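Input.
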Amino acid sequence: MPSLEAAWRAALSRLRSQVSNNNAEFLFWPEPLDDFLALVEAIRSSEPRLLRRLGFPENLDTDFRALLAKIHDELHADRSYRERESYDSEADASFGLARSIDRLRVAAPDIGGVAKSTINRLTLNANRCRKKYAELGDKEEDDGTPSEEDQSPPDEAFDINSVFVDL
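Output.
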């Protein structure tokens, strides 16, 4: 199974690289974790002995805990945005990452408690982002600026006397 082992090493390397990269926008880049989990599932269904030989999941406990710690740190960073759509994007990413962490929790049951806590925090973050997205949408609609329907065209004359006809 050299090709599976090479794929394993590459997927694990990408995941470790992402966790150790302090400049990455982690919440918007869940692909290395998803790719790694897809490989684990493929190996489990076709060659489960390879996972045991590689020591999965026991030998990766430190890696998984580092991943969850990175997510924790990211969620405690300032997550304010100027653009409304960024909140919607972060909500989508948080929900997606929560699904990935749930898959990891199933694959590596020893991290179950920490993983559940991380899933809850990601879900809370996603819901906060959706709320902020909606609030910013309401402000855009309700900022007091007259809409085009409320304004008369500039070349249309306004007869002030017609307003006071019945007085």
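The first helix runs from residue 2 to 20.
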